[in-house]
Amino acid sequence: MPPSFSFFARRAAAPVLLRGRWTALRGLAALCAAALLCGCAGVTVSSMSPREYLTQRRGDVLTTGRVSEATEEVLRVIGSDAEACADDLADCRAQLAASNGLSEEQRLAALAEVWLQVAIEGERDRSAPLPPEEALDAWMESARHAWAYLFFTPRAPGERAFEDRQTQVRDYYNFATQRVVALLFQRYQAEGTRSDAPLTMGVWRISSDASDLRLPSDAPLPSELIPAATLRFSGVRNTYRRDGLGTELVAASAPEPVIPQQDGLQGPPHTPAPFQEMPFPAATALLRFPGKTLGEVLRTQDVQLTVYDPYHTAQVELGGRRVPLAGNFTAGYGLWLARSGFATQAMRTLLGWSDRLDAPRIHLMQPYDPDRRTIVMLHGLASSPEAWINVANEVLGDAQLRDAYQVWQVYYPTNAPLGVNQHDIREALLATLAHFDPAGTARASRDMVLVGHSMGGVLARLLVSDTGDVLWNQLFGATRLKDSEKAQLRKDLGPFLVFEPLPQVSSAVFIAAPHRGTPFANKTLSRWLANMVTLPLALLERFGDATRMLARAQATQPSSDGVPPRLPNSIDNLADTDPFVRAGAELPISAQVRYHSIMGREDPAAPLAQSSDGIVPYASAHLAGADSELVLTSHHSVQENPRAILEIRRILRESLTGSGR
Fold first, then answer.
1. pLDDT tens per residue across span 329-347
2. What's the angle, vertex CA 118, arms to CA 142 and CA 150, rounded to 5?
3. pLDDT value of residue 114
4. Helices (H), 249-304
5. What digits encode the pLDDT tens for the residues 399-458?
6. Residue 221 to residues 103, 210, 257, 279, 552, Cα–Cα distance (Å)
7. Are 142 and 172 in contact (CB under 8 A)?
8. Phi and psi at residue 224, to the nearest 5°
9. CA dihedral in degrees (246, 250, 252, 255; nearest 10)?
10. How many CA atoms lie within 13 A of 575 on its CB side?
């Protein structure tokens, strides 16, 4: 090829080569651009809802079944993750314990949660559950590491007060403690023996201290220890508890049966006491791990189980600091009501179908406390302590009132006459006070508060009234009996018609109380029900001589005034024509008692003086001289009205300051 041709051939081929190189360069540039773009896409961002945010921040092994985001962060620091940790929990714990790249707070919190995961999964696996000793060890280790996090890291609990992580770790401790208590209680039930000596279970030496827990007098150990967190109630408006350290429990005992009392309150030694202490008291349990340093705490195999009464103890000394003690103030009360059978028994008692209740019973809603004032609640006709479900719960749920008061509820046979019930309730209260405070000097025996609904309000009024001879003269003053018969009648019936105010009472709240009776008791339905009411056989026998004497007087002196043809029942007494209730309405209330009225009216448009709650007219419930009177739009069960409960709480608070005395 001539030189000139080759030159032109190379010139002609050059654009092809350049185009190829340019294409290659463009491809390389595209690859570089793609690489750059891919590099920029290594971090992306998206939005999350508040719910997702809270789930991420606060979800953990207790709430989602997966370890928390905080623990996952720690696992990523040591080169692991949640899945790898779950696959080999033992190796995961070893890595957490050995890593130098973690703070003690991170390490201990993560270990507390990982040990919790071990225990939870061990219980969940029904095919191969952890043996009791291994399960106990896992729960103990979770509680121990949570304890170490709380009290043996550089920062004090107060410095982490606003941190979600501390709340999570507190929950790990409380839940692990709950499960430890359950396992120990199972062992106690299996062995059926009680010993104050330390218990050895697996590698752990466990001592116990329940000196702060006040169980009912002479009661056996509880038959159940129920975690309060597992109970859910219907019919109770709110559940009241105190956040803090410890697992909240209900120490359930078999409730004492209500035994008929044949011979009065001052009967023979076999006669049961007129009171019953709460068979389901609240309790809070703590696990204490001894040691003055973090190393000592993590090495010890000793632990102390301490059980407290949350009503009595609100704070405990732990790790050299005052720490709030957890407590649940609704669970025991709710469980008592749920298992009581009151609703059925109250109606059966009214109609005389059951003699299980023929005398008043005083039910203490918490262990007796000599330093708390006493609120006595009296229910109405055909009712029971269930009438006070939300009233008592709201009072006990108010921290100020809970610290100052204790609640006693009176359960009495509502078929008995008012005079008999007021006498027997009075005697039951005095006997209960004498049992717990023989000297009568405790705060619990002074400045008591009576709260009565409906017929219970009438009874509360009688308990603070002075009769003189008014009731006696009204009922039997015109009776034509021989002097000897009158003397015998006065001996038999005088205690029920002649009485003085209870000196221990300084305040009273009357709720929808028919002080002057009610025309509703005269209606056909009420008279039919009154005729259905059967008085207890024990009561008829109690007044047999007096009723026979009066029957003879009625037969021989049919024109004689004031001689009842039979022993009246409660519905008879509530009629606005009944001589007992009419005379009782005029009795003077003790000058030392400050009293308040709460009542309802169904029609807010009706004139107040002519209004009624459907059962009790305003004119019957109104009392001149009351320190306060609140009328609400409500039916007869006004005590359940939230505004009425707020008013009761206001009255109780004012009574504490002295302005209500």
1. 999 999 999 998 887 776 6
2. 15
3. 96
4. 294-299
5. 999 999 999 999 998 888 999 999 999 999 999 999 999 999 999 999 999 999 999 999
6. 44, 11, 17, 11, 55
7. yes
8. -145, 145
9. 140
10. 16
